[in-house]
From TrEMBL:
GO terms for molecular function: mechanosensitive monoatomic ion channel activity. This is Mechanosensitive ion channel family protein. May play a role in resistance to osmotic downshock. It comes from Alicyclobacillus acidoterrestris (strain ATCC 49025 / DSM 3922 / CIP 106132 / NCIMB 13137 / GD3B). Residues 191-275 form the Mechanosensitive ion channel MscS C-terminal domain. Residues 121-185 form the Mechanosensitive ion channel MscS domain.
Amino acid sequence: MQNNLSWWKQFKHDLVDPTHVERLLLTVGEDLLRVIVLYIIARIIIRLALRLSRRLLKLHRNRMDKRRLDTLDSLFSNIIRYTVYFLFAVESLAVFHLNITTLLAGAGVVGLAVGFGAQGLIKDLISGLFILFEDQYGVGDTVQINGFTGTVVSIGVRLTRVQAWTGEVEIIPNGQIATVTNYSRTNSVAVVDVGVSYNANLKQAMQIIEQVMNQLKQEEENVIGDVSIAGVQELRDSDVLIRATAVCAPMTQYGIQRKAQQRIKEAFDEAGIEIPFVHRTVVLKGDVNAMERGNDHVG
């Protein structure tokens, strides 16, 4: 008890002692200045390291595609930032005379408590390394991950970010990725379905469709394979469905389909070929009564 009172008296004495307060402020100010200098140095190191890693990647641009280079650039950027900021944190603690070894030893009990949480982090890191080394997908690829479809904007050792075409970004821990569908690895197929009237000349319609598709192949660099006219695909209620296909570069099939359908519509209009559409006849209740009265009068 007496020791506690002595400590309290010494603390009050130091608190009101101008010399001690001035010395304390100078010490804290110097320590804060050192931390600021360390932070500036850390930022400079990160910038230089990123510049060096990108230059090294450029040396291999002839042997790797842009997608792979962007993926590695994203990975190296994350590793560099995590490493430098970790070292900055350790050095900042040392400035304030906090021994990191002692802190870690004292946090042993806490470490056991958070150990289960760290399992998820380790799982994310290991899964991220497998994704990168196996080249499952890369930055710029269009993928579907766990049911979410979009373009990969960044890959880290822990997280993958995928942006949908509507703008939202899904942040997915690598350890939670169960299924991946990559739409950017192989060529795609543009499927063009056109319905024509039962009264139309099917041979003429298919010739026009073939001409349009071949013209697109000559004009569009994304049409990289054969054009095929599959012929009559289905006899539907109001039209005959004709299907054409074209092999395209990955993820370009939708644009090719839109252009093909527009040009086929224009060509059909010039040739007088009808593309049928659903007709609906609406009879109002009053009109029905009038029709019934008219029928009775005629009778």
